Amino acid sequence: MKLRNLLFLIIITISCSDFSKKEQINKVNKLEKELGKLEQDLMANKIDTLSGLRSAINSVEIRIKNNLYLDTINMAFGKKMDDYKRMRRSLGPIGKSFEQLKMGVIEEKEALKNLKLDIQNGEGERNLYDQHITFESTKIKQLNTLLISYKGSKSEAMEAFRRLHKELDSLSMTLINSTND
User: Fold this and answer.
1) pLDDT digit string (tens) for 112-132?
2) How far, in Å, CA of 121 to CA of 26, rounded?
3) pTM to 2 decimals?
4) Could you tell me the residue range of the domain that residue 143 belongs to?
5) pLDDT > 70 in the chain, percent
């Protein structure tokens, strides 16, 4: 009788752990899909020509600095130049944020892969799997928050570039032509 009860208890324990195992794997799969969407969004918002932008902006700034001689202060022009310089300085942190997000996604993929393998193989402390899943979910939420911040900064910088570059580039070329004449 005791042997039968013990055997029954073992069978129930094994079948219950299989249910939680499937549930945990489903949670990890869901996190992997969420991370995949985050990665796609990140890559869709990559600034492909970051070094080209920096170079173009620096060229305009140098041409204006070397060829503009004003005897009066033009406040509107000064504000445009200030916004342009601020935008240039923001490109470095934007590029750094992108690289950090990219590395974070790579690290998180690896962590989820390892967690999934641990759950499938029953390795490690099984009672902590749910805590690990929650921890990884929190990390993905943090990556998502960083992505939103990155996209906002990128959008601001690109809007300033579109608004100011053509006008200031044209002015700088005019200054060079008038200096050469």
Assistant:
1) 999 999 999 988 888 899 999
2) 15
3) 0.81
4) 20-180
5) 88
